[in-house]
Structure formats: structure tokens, C-alpha cells
């Protein structure tokens, strides 16, 4: 539609291109309505109305002030701030004219029961799911009640979970708007979700349908473990059915007939399912096929895999939402089952293998108990659990299916998840060590591993998608080495040393003073060894330590050796430090030499090289210590300072085997933008013309001079169009985060096919 300053629009007036006006959910509802998909009718209170409300009521500065010094990892502070912002919004009356418009649209729609749903303008995007961050209110009736529900949806934009997630995804709180679709309520006898791709293996030939009795919120929340139907798109034909026991369902409250606990809107309640139906299939075979055909139609319309919500009322199936699938695993990455006694079994919800210490949570208020690397165990998860999920190595729940909150968020985080075990919180005890196999839905006591050599797995998966441009991975944590090495990846393009040094926990100068040089060298050696061994013979490019002064100060003894700098990002870091503090650098070199005795696949990459003279001096130090360029030892340089671009030929003349572009620092320094600045977030963009000119010069010069060129910043993981440009310029490798390996490989394959690169 032609975008103006509308406060109210109808579904048939908007399309998928109207996300800034009506949010992801609203845009998809409009798009499907226009495509003839059976969507319950409705209208949308636009993001314009929300922004007008925030600005005209003078709430913006108050919200900004409340959030400016917030530490999102302090759960208690986060909850207090979130509640205060929500209270500000709810205590401020809506403009009279807007309230009247909302009521008038409700009357025009025919009144009756409606669902009032949140639709943030940064929601249901291909790059971020924002699963369950804002509120939904079902079975709302009456003009005043609809107005109140709209305001509650606005306030839910500042739920603690939503604030946390936006910070994690680098979204500006006050730049994200929220629209509110008001939709005719479907009184579903059955409801559920449908994936047009198998969400665990990413098999595009399969459709996965989950179904429960009653309203769909019981499924998405994880309260109910659903039926699971697997459908082959060819036909379509039902391949398998897993029927789940269901004792209760969420239904609309009807007069005085309600009994049992209510949902958050107060308009629905949990009703017992008759015993004769508890073990039955929730929808008919005809319903399954009808849903599959609708799903394929929607997937074709959007030209990509979809996550669809549906509801059945009487004999009609309605589609109430569709969004892109945001977290996919390379289907070729086969992981064999473990041969060991099974302790617990449930639904495979997010692939991978992880071992850790159990932390059983009874309530979101206990999330601070979960530390980095723990296994989070709960009845189910809600968006309030996300901060703990972010720290967890894996998730195990009693309830829920493959499309529950726990499953969706785990796949997005890239951690293993097993749901619907039934008794995890009873059988598992705090501090118990367990292994979670999210690929096969199994939990084992103690630490166990797959009964297959990593190299065998790697040889299988590398036979899948092949590209001339190599796909490397960025890694930091040694415990992930074996898992990621089994993926369809060509090596480690960026091994960040900083995590290893953080684990040591002591300033290197302090350890020298205490006579602990050997301990320091040994710990660095062990950290790097795990990567070298897992990936051998594939290359592991180790970036030498790039701690800044403030990070060094945080280590034990650090305040004695580190001064205060106004801007550590531009301060005493990178090779400048190595030249001035050779003794510490030599200990790091010694650790690398020890690893290379058995695993010569480890190469060195130098960070933050400001001048050609600095590069020459550090090269001399390396050579004096026995690390000299040759057939079995390569030296790379990070390209992250503008001088690297201007003098790229002179840096190459100094003698390096390859470059790796750190697009984060390079963009920051070319544009003069602090990448962590909330106010300048929109300006920080690797696709800026000036940055693209720099990237093209670096890559094409490297190609002309016969050295390798890679990129290891965040950009390739975020912007597929940039990856295509890099391939066209002649980049030899792209290094990305583990969750983007399969996606990046596919992007590169398509780009190479388009450019006829073989």
C-alpha cells in the first residue's frame, strides 16, 4: 500500500513489504489475505499509532533514561526496569481520537470475540524470530476491552525478555515499533503449527505438523506435548504419526462454566479432555493433507521455508500466521546415535551434542542459577528463560514439542535441545553431569561421545555441498572444537585467543612475577591443541591475543600492569603490544610451537597491525623464535585498520601469506562510528559505499598478488548480498559463526553458479 500516517489499516490493504508500518506478523497476515489463504479477517493498529503515542505523551525520554544504564545480565535489575517502563505506558491514557478509531474499526468488523496480537517491526524476520517476545490476548470482546488489550501489547514491547533479546540482536529499543493486529477469534477445536521443512535435519522434502486440542497457545508455550505428523511433499502423503496423550486443553471461558486455572488474558481456561479422547489423534487424515497442501502453497508464495500457525474451527482450517524459518541445520550433517544406556528420551528439538552440569529450574525467577555451560532443565521454558538459555550448553524439558518455545529458541541459539521427556525435572538432579543428544532426542548419564571418529563424520559431510570458495568457522571455546569439526566446514578461519586467556584468568605479567610462565604456556597450549587436533589436517588460523587494556585489567593482577585508557579500542592493543612487551608475546609463541610439533595445521594471524614497520618487527620476533614462513607455516594479517587498505601492497611486500578482513573494526574506523553506540547503530553498516570500496580493494589486491583473502567479521553472516560481492571479487574463504556454516555454504554455491565459478 501507499504508506502514509495511518493509525488503522485492514489486512487486505497491506503486504509483506509493509513491515515498518504493521510489523512482521501484520505484514504476513496481509500478504496471505491477498494471496487467498484462509486467514480470519481483521485490521491492524499500526506502528505509526504506537510511535505517535510514545512521542505525544513525552514517554520517549523517560523510557530512554530508564534503559540507558541497564545491565541485561542482571536479571533482577532487568525485571525492575522492565516493569517500570510497562507501568509508564499503561498509566498513560491513549489519545481520544485513536481510541475512537480502534473502537470504530472493531464495530466495522462486526464486533464479537477477537484475538489481539503483538506485531513488532523487528519480528518474524528472516534473520531473527523474536519468538514469543510480546504478548497476545485471546477472546477479547468489547470496544474498551480491545483498546486496553492494544495498550497492553504496546507495553509488552518492554517485557524483560523482549528488552534482553533486542540487546542480543543489536536492535535499538526506541527504533523498534509495534503494531497490533485485531483478528476475528477462531474457537479452535484443534490447533497447531506446521513447518514446510523438517526443522531438525532441514529436509526440504518433508512437512512437519504438530497438533493439540484447544487453543494454540497451549502448544507454543510448551504446556502441551503435541501429536507429530511427518508428511512427504510428494503426494502429499503421511509418512508417520506420533500420538501424544493430552489431559487438558485451553478453551474460551463461557459464562460460569469455567473451572480450572486461567491463561494470562483471563478470558480462557484449562478444561479437562474427556478420557475417551486423550489418546486419540487430534485431527483427521483429511485435515493433515489439507494442511500440507496449504503449507506448500504458502511456501511457494513466499519462496522459502515457512513456520505456520493454524487452527481448526468446526470443519474449516484457518491459517493465523506464517513466518520464515530462521534457524536451519545443513541436512547433510549426519550425526550417528550414541551407543550407551539411555537415561531419558523425548523429542529431538535442536541438533547437537553437549555435556554439562544439570540446573533444574522450577520458575523463571531462578534463571541466575544457570551458569555458562550448564544444562538447563525445566518443566518447559518461556521467553523469560532466555537469558539463562543463552548461557546454557543444552536444554531439556518435560513438556513441549519441536515447535515449542524451548525448541525454537534453542535452534536459534545453536544449542542441543530435547523436549517432551515427561520426567526430566524429577529424574535429573542439580550438579549431576549429563550428555544431551538433541539430534536424536536422548539424554545420557555422565559424559559420553558418539561411537564414531570425528574424521569419518567430517569426510561424510564434506561430500555434500562443494564450493571453490572455502567456508571457515570462527571459534573461541575449546569444548566446541569436536562438535564443529564434524560440520561441513573447511577449517578454522579465526581462532580467537581471548577466550583461552580469559579462562587462565591471570595477567601474564603477574604470572611471570609469580614464576608461573610454564603454567601459562601449558594452558595456552592445551587450549589451542583441542582445535588443532579436532580439525587436523584442515587449517586452524590462530589470531594472537588481542586483549585491550580494560580486558587485561580485569584479570588477576591486571590493575598493577595496565593503565586506564580513554579509548581502549584505539589504544595499547594488537601488534603494538607485542613489540613493547616481547616477553609475554614469546610465551604465546612457545605455546603455538608446541602445538605445531604434532599438528602443523596451526597458522598464525596478527591482529590490529597499524603500520608496515610494525608488521616487519613482529615478523622478526616470530622468526627469531622459530616461526618462519614456509611450506608448512603460513602467516596471515588481519585487515581492520584503514592504513591496511591504503598500503595493502606494502603490507604484502613485507611478507604475508594471506589476509583476513575484520569487517567490524574496519567499518568502525572507516565510518568513524562506535559499533556499540545505540544512537549510531543505523550508520554502522558494512554495506556502506566507503566500506565496500575498501573491501573490494583488499580482496582484489590479494588476488592480484597471489595471496589468500578471507573475511571473519560479522558481515557475511548477516548480509548474503555482501557475500556474493566478495565471491565475485575473488575472495578465497569466508569465516562465519558455527550456526551460519550451512547457510553461508549455500549462499556461496549459488553465487559461484551465477558467476560460473568451478
What's the helix and strand layout?
Layout: E1 8-10, H1 19-34, E2 42-45, H2 47-56, H3 59-67, H4 75-90, H5 96-108, E3 114-117, E4 119-120, E5 136-140, H6 143-156, H7 160-168, E6 178-184, E7 190-195, E8 206-213, H8 217-220, E9 227-232, E10 237-242, E11 248-252, E12 268-272, H9 285-302, E13 306-313, E14 316-324, E15 344-345, E16 347-350, E17 353-361, E18 375-378, H10 386-391, E19 394-397, H11 405-413, E20 417-419, H12 424-427, E21 433-437, E22 442-445, H13 454-461, E23 470-475, H14 481-485, E24 492-496, H15 498-504, H16 508-513, H17 517-535, E25 540-543, H18 549-553, H19 558-561, H20 575-580, H21 582-598, E26 602-606, H22 612-624, E27 635-639, H23 642-646, H24 648-653, E28 658-661, H25 663-671, H26 689-705, E29 708-711, H27 715-718, H28 720-729, E30 733-736, H29 741-754
Parallel strand pairs: 17-18, 18-19, 19-20, 23-24, 23-30, 24-25, 25-26, 26-27, 27-28, 28-29
Antiparallel strand pairs: 1-2, 2-6, 3-5, 3-6, 4-6, 7-8, 7-13, 8-9, 9-10, 11-12, 13-14, 15-22, 16-20, 17-21, 21-22
Amino acid at each position: 500500500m501507499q504508506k502514509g500516517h495511518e493509525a488503522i489499516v485492514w489486512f487486505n490493504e497491506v503486504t509483506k513489504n509493509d513491515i515498518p508500518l504493521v510489523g512482521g506478523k501484520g505484514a504476513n497476515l496481509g500478504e496471505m489475505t491477498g494471496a487467498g489463504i484462509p486467514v480470519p479477517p481483521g485490521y491492524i493498529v499500526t506502528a505509526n499509532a504506537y510511535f505517535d503515542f510514545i512521542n505525544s505523551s513525552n514517554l520517549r525520554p523517560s523510557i530512554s533514561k530508564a534503559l540507558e544504564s541497564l545491565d541485561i545480565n542482571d536479571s533482577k535489575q532487568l525485571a525492575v526496569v522492565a516493569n517500570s517502563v510497562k507501568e509508564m505506558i499503561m498509566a498513560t491514557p491513549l489519545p481520544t481520537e485513536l481510541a475512537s478509531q480502534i473502537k470504530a474499526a472493531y464495530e466495522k468488523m462486526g464486533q464479537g470475540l477477537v484475538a489481539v496480537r503483538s506485531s513488532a517491526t523487528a519480528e518474524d524476520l528472516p534473520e531473527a524470530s523474536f519468538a514469543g517476545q510480546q504478548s497476545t490476548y485471546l477472546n477479547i470482546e468489547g470496544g474498551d476491552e480491545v483498546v486496553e488489550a492494544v495498550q497492553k501489547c504496546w507495553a509488552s514491547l518492554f517485557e524483560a525478555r523482549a528488552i534482553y533479546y533486542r540487546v542480543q540482536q543489536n536492535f535499538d529499543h526506541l527504533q523498534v515499533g509495534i503494531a497490533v493486529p485485531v483478528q476475528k477469534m477462531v474457537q479452535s477445536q484443534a490447533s497447531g503449527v506446521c513447518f514446510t521443512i523438517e526443522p531438525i535435519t532441514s529436509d526440504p522434502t518433508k512437512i512437519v505438523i504438530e497438533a493439540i486440542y484447544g487453543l494454540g497457545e497451549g502448544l507454543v508455550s510448551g504446556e502441551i506435548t503435541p501429536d507429530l505428523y511427518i508428511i512427504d511433499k510428494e503426494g502429499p502423503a503421511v509418512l508417520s504419526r506420533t500420538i501424544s496423550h493430552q489431559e487438558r486443553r485451553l478453551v474460551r471461558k463461557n459464562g460460569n462454566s469455567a473451572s480450572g486455572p486461567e491463561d494470562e488474558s483471563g478470558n480462557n481456561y484449562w478444561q479437562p479432555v474427556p478420557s475417551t479422547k486423550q489418546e486419540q489423534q487430534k485431527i483427521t487424515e483429511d485435515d493433515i493433507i489439507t494442511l500440507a497442501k496449504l503449507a506448500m502453497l504458502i511456501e511457494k508464495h513466499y519462496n522459502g521455508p515457512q513456520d505456520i500457525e493454524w487452527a481448526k474451527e468446526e470443519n474449516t482450517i484457518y491459517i493465523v500466521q506464517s513466518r520464515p524459518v530462521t534457524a536451519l541445520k545443513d541436512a547433510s550433517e549426519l550425526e550417528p546415535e550414541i551407543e550407551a544406556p539411555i537415561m531419558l528420551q523425548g523429542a529431538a528439538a535442536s541438533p547437537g551434542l553437549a555435556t554439562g552440569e544439570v540446573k533444574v529450574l522450577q520458575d523463571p525467577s531462578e534463571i541466575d542459577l544457570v551458569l555458562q555451560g550448564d544444562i538447563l532443565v525445566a518443566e518447559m521454558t518461556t521467553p523469560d528463560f532466555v537469558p539463562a538459555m543463552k548461557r546454557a550448553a543444552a536444554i531439556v524439558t518435560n513438556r513441549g514439542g519441536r515447535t515449542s518455545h524451548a525448541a525454537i529458541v534453542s535452534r536459534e541459539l545453536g544449542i542441543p535441545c530435547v523436549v517432551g521427556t515427561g520426567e526430566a525435572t524429577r529424574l535429573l538432579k542439580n550438579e549431576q553431569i549429563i550428555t544431551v543428544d538433541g539430534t536424536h532426542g536422548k539424554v545420557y548419564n555422565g559424559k559420553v561421545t558418539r561411537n564414531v571418529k570425528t574424521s569419518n563424520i567430517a569426510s561424510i559431510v564434506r561430500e555434500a555441498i562443494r564450493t571453490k570458495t572455502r567456508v571457515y568457522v570462527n571459534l573461541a571455546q575449546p569444548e566446541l572444537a569436536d562438535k564443529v569439526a564434524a560440520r561441513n566446514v573447511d577449517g578454522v578461519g579465526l581462532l580467537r585467543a581471548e577466550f583461552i586467556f580469559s579462562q587462565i584468568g591471570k595477567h601474564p605479567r603477574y604470572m611471570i612475577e609469580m614464576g608461573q610462565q610454564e603454567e601459562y604456556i601449558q594452558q595456552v597450549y592445551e587450549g589451542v591443541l583441542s582445535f588443532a587436533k579436532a580439525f587436523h589436517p584442515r587449517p586452524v588460523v590462530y589470531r594472537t591475543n588481542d586483549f585491550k587494556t580494560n580486558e587485561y585489567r580485569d584479570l588477576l593482577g591486571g590493575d598493577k600492569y595496565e593503565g586506564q585508557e580513554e579509548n581502549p579500542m584505539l589504544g595499547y592493543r594488537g601488534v603494538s603490544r607485542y613489540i613493547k612487551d616481547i616477553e609475554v608475546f614469546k610465551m604465546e609463541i612457545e605455546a603455538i610451537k608446541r602445538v605445531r610439533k604434532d599438528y602443523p595445521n596451526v597458522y598464525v594471524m596478527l591482529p590490529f597491525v597499524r603500520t608496515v614497520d610494525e608488521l616487519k618487527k613482529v615478523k622478526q620476533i616470530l622468526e627469531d623464535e622459530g616461526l618462519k614462513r614456509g611450506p608448512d607455516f603460513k602467516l596471515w594479517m588481519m585487515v581492520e585498520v584503514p592504513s591496511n587498505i591504503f598500503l595493502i601492497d606494502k603490507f604484502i611486500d613485507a611478507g604475508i601469506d594471506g589476509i583476513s578482513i575484520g569487517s567490524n573494526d574496519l567499518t568502525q574506523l572507516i565510518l568513524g562510528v562506535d559499533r556499540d553506540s545505540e544512537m549510531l547503530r543505523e550508520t554502522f553498516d558494512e554495506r556502506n559505499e566507503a566500506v565496500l570500496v575498501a573491501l573490494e580493494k583488499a580482496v582484489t589486491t590479494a588476488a592480484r598478488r597471489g595471496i589468500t583473502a578471507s573475511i571473519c567479521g560479522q558481515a557475511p553472516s548477516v548480509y548474503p548480498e555482501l557475500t556474493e560481492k566478495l565471491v565475485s571479487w575473488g575472495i578465497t574463504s569466508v569465516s562465519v559463526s558455527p550456526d551460519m556454516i550451512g547457510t553461508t555454504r549455500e549462499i556461496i554455491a549459488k553465487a559461484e553458479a551465477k558467476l560460473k565459478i568451478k
